Each structure stands twice: as C-alpha cells, then as structure tokens.
Amino acid sequence: MDPARDVEISKYLARHLRHQPERIGLHLDAQGWADIDTLLRAAARHGFRMTRPELEQVVASNDKQRYVIDPGHDRIRATQGHSVPVDLGLPAATPPEWLYHGTAPRAVAAIRAEGLRPMNRHAVHLSPDRATATRVGARRGRPVVLSVAAGAMHRDGHTFHVTDNTVWLTAAVPPQYLSFPG
C-alpha cells in the first residue's frame, strides 16, 4: 500500500474514532469500539472510501499502534487519545520511576507554571523512554523532553494506566514532579 494513503487513513480514523464520530454518524460504545462495517459504510457516505484490507493494513502497520481490532474482527477502536467520553477499561498500573513527555518549546512556560494537563484529551500521555518522547515532541518542531517523576507521583497517590501500546496515562502532572532540560 502507498505510505501516503496509510497516513490519510490513519488521520481519518483518529478524527472519527477519537474526536468526532458523530461527524459521520458513527456511534462508539462506552469503551470506544465501533463496528467496522458501519465505519466503512459511514466513511463512504461521507466521501472517504477505504476497503477493509486497507483498514486492516493501517491497524497492523501503524508504528504507534494507535488502533486495535477486537478478537472477533468485528470492531475497531483507538487505543488512547480520545476527546470524546470513553472508558478504555485499563486497570491501574504501577509506573516506572521515570516517564517522559515530549512537547514544543512554546509550551514550556505554561507547563512550568501549571504542570501537564490533558488539554482536550482525557489524560496526559507519557512515554516510557526519551526516544519516544522525542518523536512525540518533534511533531510540532524542535522537541523539548520533560522527565516525569512517575514513581514519586504514584507513591503520593496519583493513578496511572498503561495502554497496550505502552502509552502511560494519568489525569495530570503537577509541576513539582517535572524536571526540565538545561
């Protein structure tokens, strides 16, 4: 498949499985699942045609494993990053001592003052290693990688969850748990 087409489909899925399912008349259940055949028909009705093999290719090859198909191969959902209400059913997990967050330089002053907030998502997303955080932060230019004292946060009562694709989620990160480069 064409890599540009993969990206196009992935972005379409992100928009409609994470943020605006209603835009194409799609219904997500409480856990964020959508019927695949319904998704394909809704996308086609709204001028975006994709085949089931294309969809499955994007799910299988996505480097960040953003989507998952259920074991029955009937439903699909985004693994995290929703701005619409969903309960992914992730159990609480004990994080490693340090997690990382990649961001853009323009956000650093606000983060120093307020900590990390989920913004339009349900949770703050944290990476298990600096390399991943660097890639995440680079989406918006030169990345700044912050270190998060996740172990200390957990011991102080903050809850963490981890997705199947190893993205760590927490409600917020207060500034005292952040270390800034430089």
Could you please describe the fold and organization of this structure?
- This protein has 182 residues and is of the alpha+beta class.
- The protein has two domains: 3-78, Arc Repressor Mutant, subunit A; 99-179, ADP-ribosylation fold.
- The chain has helices at 3-19, 36-45, 52-61, 108-114, 130-137, 150-155; strands at residues 34-35, 67-69, 75-78, 99-103, 124-126, 144-148, 160-162, 168-170, 178-179.
- A three-stranded antiparallel sheet has the order 1-3-2. It has a three-stranded antiparallel sheet with strand order 4-6-9.
- The longest helix is centred in the N-terminal third of the chain and has 17 residues, at 3-19.
Q: How helix-rich are the residues, as a percent range?
A: 25-40%
As for the CATH topology of the largest domain, it is ADP-ribosylation fold
The global form is: globular
Mean pLDDT across residues: 94
Q: What's the helix-strand series?
A: HEHHEEEHEHEHEEE
**How far is it from the N-terminal to the C-terminal residue, by CA?**
43 Å
**What CATH architecture of the largest domain would you give?**
Alpha-Beta Barrel
Cα Rg: 17 Å
Number of helices: 6
Strand arrangement within the widest β-sheet reads 1-3-2
How many domains, in number, for the residues? 2
Low-confidence stretches: none
Give the tally of β-strands. Answer: 9
By CATH reckoning, the class of the largest domain would read Alpha Beta
Produce the secondary structure layout.
Elements: H1 3-19, E1 34-35, H2 36-45, H3 52-61, E2 67-69, E3 75-78, E4 99-103, H4 108-114, E5 124-126, H5 130-137, E6 144-148, H6 150-155, E7 160-162, E8 168-170, E9 178-179
Antiparallel strand pairs: 1-3, 2-3, 4-6, 5-8, 6-9, 7-8
